[in-house]
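Recall the central idea of this unit: under ordinary conditions, the amino acid sequence of a chain determines the structure it adopts. In this exercise we apply that idea directly, starting from the sequence alone.
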Amino acid sequence: MSNNLPKVAWIGLGIMGSPMSENLIKAGYDVTGYTLEQDKIDRLVAAGGTGASSIADAVEDADVVITMVPASPQVEAIAYGPDGILENARRGALLVDMSSITPQTSVDLAEKAAEKGIRVLDAPVSGGEAGAIEAVLSIMVGGEQADFDTAKPLLEALGKTIVLCGPHGSGQTVKAANQLIVAVNIQACAEAVVFLEKSGVDLTAALDVLNGGLAGSTVLTRKKDNFLKRDFAPGFRIDLHHKDMGIVTDAARNVGAALPVGGVVAQLVASLRAQGDGGLDHSALLRSVERLSGSQV
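Accordingly, the structure predicted from this sequence is:
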């Protein structure tokens, strides 16, 4: 594909990365992808992308490298070392890390990349699998204005709300706040669901009317069917929300911000994971409330 758009390397083709990279291909970008599972690389190729045999192979010709992996250790594993992005991408390349990691990891990555002449943005997203597929993600970005301006057309193929939040790490800080709000919101919805059901109310009707008022939320809209059907196939796994609650409680502690409700919900997420539900969608916080309310789950 010959066009004037930047050449993109995409590292990490999971629940989010696969549909996002495909949206870039649909927007006309030349995308070369690498991930650990061959079937995910095959999926990218089937969508019109190019498969790579390694990170080095993927990034060597790229103008923009996008990464979407689960957590800080994976970002460090793909970025650093002789086989990593920083050693193999060309000077002047732009690295856009869309993973949700600690703000400090993003700050460190930007510093180390600068030594190699590689520019970095942290650009975590909100909107889950559905938002990734529909290209309506909210993208919170940390880094330099000029780099943000370069990346913006590309990010517009992936999301709808794209905001530069401040210097390196700021995107991750806003994402951490996002995950705090989402978890507390899901927990409140879950408590309401158990209360309504135990009261004998028509749950579908109740959630419809609640979602039309001040109690309505994107969380309730997106997760209503999960609650109604007890369908906890992951859009966003409890394991990952557990990681994110660790990030936000730790970061808040470092800056001296109290998270009294967030701390409780972080423990509820941790307990759900300890009970073996880590692979379920975060709407499975409902199971925790059911157990506490005496239901056999």
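The first strand starts at residue 8 and ends at 11.
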